[in-house]
Specification:
With 405 residues, the protein is of the alpha+beta class. Helix content is 39%, strand content 23%. The chain has helices at residues 13-21, 46-49, 59-65, 76-91, 119-134, 146-156, 169-174, 186-194, 200-205, 208-215, 218-226, 257-278, 310-322, 351-370, and strands at residues 5-10, 30-33, 41-44, 70-73, 97-101, 104-108, 138-143, 161-163, 243-254, 280-290, 296-307, 330-342, 375-376, 383-384, 390-391, 403-404. The strands form five sheets. A five-stranded mixed sheet has the order 5-6-1-7-8. A hairpin with a 7-residue loop joins strand 2 (30-33) and strand 3. Helix 10 crosses helix 11. The radius of gyration is 23 Å and the shape is globular.
Length: 405
C-alpha cells in the first residue's frame, strides 16, 4: 500500500499564539524572544517577516530591519500546552504520528484517510479544528514519505495545503534547487553546487560513487533524496529518542575556563537528567560552541561504556574542550548525548556505582517535584547577585534558598 504522510507545520507558531492571546498584537510585526539579555529571535510573525526579520537574528538586526517590531518574551508553558492539545486533534485522525518539534508533526494516514473521505478532507478538517480551537493557522503538506510531505508544506506556507502525489515527484524535483530539500543545509548545498549539482534532478542522476567520495556515507542518502526517496519511518512516542541535548546563549561572551566549566556542568546535568528520565544511556557526547560572529561548530567523543551519569558526561565534554583551541570568546555552549540505548537495570558489582544511581534518582525526584534547580551542583553556580546570593546560569535569577551538592 502506498504510504500517505501528512506534515502539519504551524504558521509562525509562537508569534501566532502570542497574537491570539493578546488581540492588540494582531496584524502587527511581532517577534518572540527568550528571557536572556542576549537573546535572539525565536520566531517572527508574518507581518515582521515581510521586513526580513528571521529566526536566529539578534534583536539589534531585527529592529534595524523593522523599527516598529514588538518584542514578546516567550512563554514555553503556553506553547507546550497548545502542542499537547494539537496532539489530541491529530490522534482523532490517526494513531500513527510523530511530534517532530513543538510546532511540527508528521501523521501517517495511509490506513485511516478513507474514513474521512480522503487525504485532502483530512487536511481541511484538521485546519478547521485548529482554527476553531486556537484561532491560528497551519500549513499541511501531503506526500508519499516524510521528505516529500515536508517539501509540500514548505511550498504551501502560510495557511495552505498541497498534496504531491507519487507520480508527480520526479517532474517536481527535476528543476528544484537542492537547497529546497529538507536536510540539505547551506554548506551541503554549496558543496553540491561546486560539483555542478544545482537541482534535485541532477542530484538523483549523479553516480553514488561520486557523491560518496565527497560526502562519505551521506552521499548515498543525498542521491536517494534527489530521487524523492526517503525510507525513515515515523518516530512515535514508543520509539527511543535519537539524542538528548541542551544549549544556551550565554548572558555575556565568556573566555575564562572556570566560567565555561560552570556552564558545561549545568548543561551536562540537564542532559543527564533527561536521559535518566527517558531510561536511556548514551555512547557519544558532543560539545557545540558558537563565537560572537555566529560561527558554530560541534565536536564529539565516543565513550567506552554508555552512561547517563552527570559527572561522566561533564568530564568527557571537558576533555573535548581541552582539544579545542579557541580563537575568540564563546557566545553559546551546547552539550548532547547520543547513541542512546536502554539503561541497564542489572545490579552493578561495584557498590559505589549503585550509590551514585541512588543519589541521582533522589536528586531527580526532588527537582521534578519542587522545580528545576531545587538542588544544584555547587560548581554550576558561577557568580553572585546584588544581595550576595548565588545566581543560577540558566535563568540569571538569584536562588532564594539554594541547596547545593
Amino acid at each position: 500500500m502506498e504510504k500517505i504522510i501528512m506534515c502539519i507545520d504551524m504558521d509562525a507558531f509562537f508569534a501566532s499564539v502570542e497574537q491570539k492571546s493578546n488581540p492588540r498584537l494582531l496584524g502587527k510585526p511581532v517577534a518572540v524572544i527568550g528571557s536572556g539579555s542576549r537573546t535572539v529571535i525565536t520566531t517572527a510573525s508574518y507581518e515582521a517577516r515581510r521586513f526580513g526579520v528571521k529566526t536566529g537574528m539578534t534583536v539589534y538586526e531585527a529592529r534595524r530591519l523593522c523599527p516598529d517590531l514588538i518584542l514578546v518574551r516567550g512563554n514555553s508553558e503556553k506553547y507546550i500546552d497548545t502542542c499537547r492539545e494539537l496532539e489530541g486533534i491529530y490522534r482523532d485522525f490517526t494513531p500513527h504520528l510523530e511530534l517532530y518539534s513543538i510546532d511540527e508533526a508528521f501523521l501517517d494516514i495511509t490506513r485511516t484517510h478513507h474514513l474521512f473521505n480522503g487525504p485532502e478532507r483530512v487536511a481541511a478538517l484538521i485546519k478547521g479544528r485548529i482554527m476553531d480551537r486556537f484561532g491560528i493557522t497551519c500549513t499541511v503538506g501531503i506526500g508519499p514519505n516524510l521528505l516529500i510531505a515536508k517539501l509540500a508544506s514548505d511550498m504551501a506556507k502560510p495557511d495552505g495545503m498541497k498534496w504531491i502525489k507519487i507520480e508527480d515527484v520526479g517532474r517536481l524535483l527535476e528543476e528544484l534547487p537542492v537547497g529546497e530539500l529538507w536536510g540539505i543545509g547551506p554548506a551541503t548545498e554549496k558543496a553540491l553546487n561546486m560539483m555542478g549539482i544545482k537541482t534535485c534532478g541532477q542530484l538523483g542522476r549523479t553516480p553514488v560513487s561520486v557523491l560518496r567520495s565527497r560526502f562519505g556515507i551521506l552521499g548515498e542518502s543525498l542521491k536517494t533524496m534527489g530521487m524523492g526517496i526517503w525510507t525513515r519511518p515515523l518516530i512515535t512516542g514508543e520509539e527511543r529518542p535519537v539524542s538528548v541535548g541542551h544549549s544556551l546563549t550565554l548572558p555575556r561572551d565568556v573566555w575564562k575556563r572556570e566560567e565555561m566549566e560552570s556552564w558545561i556542568l549545568l548543561l551536562s546535568d540537564k542532559v543527564a537528567r533527561r536521559a535518566r528520565g527517558y531510561g536511556y544511556e548514551g555512547r557519544t557526547v558532543s560539545l557545540t560552541l558558537r563565537y560572537p560572529d555566529f560561527e558554530t561548530f560541534t565536536k564529539q567523543k565516543g565513550l567506552h561504556t554508555p552512561t547517563n551519569d552527570t559527572h561522566q558526561i561533564y568530564r568527557q565534554v571537558l576533555s573535548i574542550l581541552d582539544s579545542i583551541r579557541l580563537r575568540d570568546r564563546v557566545r553559546l555552549i551546547g552539550v548532547r548525548l547520543s547513541g542512546l540505548t536502554r539503561e541497564s537495570n542489572q545490579m552493578s558489582l561495584f557498590s559505589g556505582l549503585e550509590r551514585r544511581k541512588a543519589l541521582f534518582k533522589a536528586i531527580d525526584t526532588i527537582n521534578n517535584r519542587y522545580g528545576e534547580l531545587s538542588l544544584a551542583w555547587a560548581a554550576s553556580i558561577c557568580k553572585e547577585g546584588p544581595s550576595g546570593r548565588p545566581i543560577t546560569p540558566s535563568t540569571g535569577k538569584e536562588l532564594m534558598r539554594p541547596s547545593v551538592y
